[in-house]
Amino acid sequence: MNKVIANADVAIQDIQDGMTLMLGGFGLCGIPENSITALVKNGVKNLTCISNNAGVDDFGIGLMLHKKQVKKMIASYVGENAEFERQLLSGELEVELIPQGTLATRCMAAGYGMPAIFTPAGVGTEVAEGKETRNFNGKDYLMEMAFDADFAIVKAWKGDTMGNLIYKSTARNFNPLMAMAGKITIAEVEELVPAGELDPDQIHTPGIYVHRIFQGSNYEKRIEQRTLRTT
């Protein structure tokens, strides 16, 4: 089955107002740059975005925040975005902060078809408010629901026309988990090759999880925090 889409604009064209999106990446590493640009251009709004972080002011999900396209942000780290902070403090943006391991595992649960997970993270804190707690072998655990996302949008280094994906280095972060978890998964890749050219032993995401794939372009691959030695 050929899953190749012409470009990001075509790939995201049926994403509608009010939908829930997963967006892969860690910091600014491995984020679906082309798809985010297409979403900004499309103007879709009232989105719930699930991502490790919210980008920075002028890059990544930060671009969508500036356009007021995000209604709710579900993330584990949001410290590098002044516009995010402004919208949060003004009440314009709903925010759900989640421990990073819980975020990853709720993605995994969705991919595995599990309705919920139990985790000790957050027990006895504000994270636990309104959630069911169960005790296993003398230890309390929170029940956290698997995510329910309309689309998962991920970025890979290389992919083939069947949707098989290979991630490179740090970009192999939330992308594999989110690729499993969306009702529809869109993958943008730096290099798109014919089916059969990828070494099966190197594939991180099997094509069964991917519905649309396209070759991206003009990747900036920014570094969020550059630290250099002075000596």
From TrEMBL:
Any GO MF annotation of the entry: CoA-transferase activity
SUPFAM superfamilies the record matches: NagB/RpiA/CoA transferase-like
Source domain of life: Bacteria
Keywords, comma-separated and alphabetical: Transferase
Record's keyword annotation contains Transferase: yes
Family classification: Belongs to the 3-oxoacid CoA-transferase subunit A family.
PANTHER family named among the record's database cross-references: ACETATE COA-TRANSFERASE SUBUNIT ALPHA (PTHR13707:SF60), KETOACID-COENZYME A TRANSFERASE (PTHR13707)
The name this protein goes by in its record: CoA transferase subunit A
